[in-house]
Amino acid sequence: MSPVSGSPVRLPNSISTACCKPRILRSYFVRKGPTLSTVMITGTSKGIGFATALAFARAGHTVFATMRNPTQSPQLAEIVAKESLPIAISQMDVDSDESVHDGMAAILAKGPIDVLVNNAGIEAVGSVEEQPLSVFRAIMETNYFGVIRCVQAVVPQMRERRSGCIINVSSVAGCFSNSPFAAYCASKWALEAMTESLATEMKTFKVRVALIEPGIIDTAMAQRIGTPVDRSHYAQGARHAALFKNSLQQPVHPSLVAVKILEVADSGTWQLRHPVGPDAMLFINLRKGMTDEDWVDFHAADDATFFARLAKETAG
Fold this sequence. Notes:
The protein contains 12 helices and 7 strands. By secondary structure, the protein is α/β, with parallel strands linked by helices.
């Protein structure tokens, strides 16, 4: 297809079985650890953050759930009231120094935070040429600098107590990069680098640090990516919209990621990286199995060649 034609990309039938295996949800309401913790989670209005807040609270933890606009996202509050869950919802914009400072101060005034889950994030789809610089900056502000703001606010009390756990929600996009996700991948690469360094610093003080790397999860973000982009000189946008749309036909619920985050917090593991989802390791291993030049050629190929190789590489 012509990159500017706007014609929909159709996946070969083989891709549907190679990349989209059945999604199985697991229950996450049984506690594994003996100690109840105070947990702070960002970006809880929907998706992974929403599911994670419920998972921790239903397991008995005390949860401080933050979001940019609580009044515009009443669903969590409704469930909290219905189930009498130990969740306190508050406003916090991770893009704002003042908002994070004031929000964290209010939470810490009630006692120490045992677990910090940095989940707030945004996405963008587009080529490097066509994506405005403001979009690159906005994504880094939320996905990278927003995490740093929250980490710097809680680390002192964790370091002093020589106890705590910081869980940063990254993505498989933190393990490789390809069009049309340059801005998003760059933010997740930065997050992964910072988190790895943070882990080396905090282990000295017995504070655990972990990265969660989901694959394609049924969230509003993934649904948006599955919608074809506007006309572009680059074919990769429509191609990956088709991949996401295909994957979401067998959706992976965000609770699967919540299960992993709760497991990491409760288990005491020092493992740094945790891929999540039936396609996470498939994507990661796909990249590991190629040289840099192979990876570039793979994504630069026409649709027929790309999908044929994808089917071959992911068979079985």
